[in-house]
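INTERNAL AUDIT FORM
Audit reference: QA-55
Scope: verify that the stored structure record matches its stored sequence.
Auditor: D.O.
Record contents follow.
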Amino acid sequence: MTSHRILNWTPAAIVFDCDGTLMDTERHWQDARELVMRDFGVTPAPDFAERSKGLHYTECGRLMADESGRPELGEQLTSGLLEHFRTLVERNPQTMTGARELVANAAKFAPLAVASNCPRDVVESCLRHAGLRGYFDHIVVPDENNRPKPYPDVYLTAARYCGAAPADALAVEDSTCGVEAAVRAGLRVLGVGPWPGEEVAASVDLWVASLDQPDVFEWASKRVARQLPA
């Protein structure tokens, strides 16, 4: 990892993933997967949770159906998964450790965006409940013009909306799927969360256990504030 590519640099824009990066919602996806599988009596492979992390929920639903030998249930599993997830998030929205402080400091020196595989209304709701929505200039989610991660589309669009070339922008990600999307888009990448293994870690510029790591906090708090229009 080349931490100097992050900690000695001021990005022209910062694009954050939401689930597991800004918001502690990966556990909600896990719970939602377990609930919908119980509802339909399906059982994917034991490592399904890790492999499905960061996937678009429609891909997750199809994967559950295929691995359970019930491909005809794809649409129903997808719908049930999203319904359970929305309910769980509304009951208990929580930010990830250090996310609030990093976002507040980063917004002083760079335009911010969110690039997520979640539906827009879920992202909006999470950020509003967490008091973070006002920091973000743009939210980009998969649609008719943007394929979901691991395709690079949402990161390319987010950087463009922020007025930055991909090479001048920073992605903040927690999943293998998201890291792949950001790398393919050409952004520098700050990875966060449990150690992902050498292969994934080698593809990012810096990996930290959490966003409150002292050198990351110091880096964000000491950047020169941008001049906003009067």
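Auditor finding: record pair retrieved intact. The first strand starts at residue 13 and ends at 16.
Action required: none
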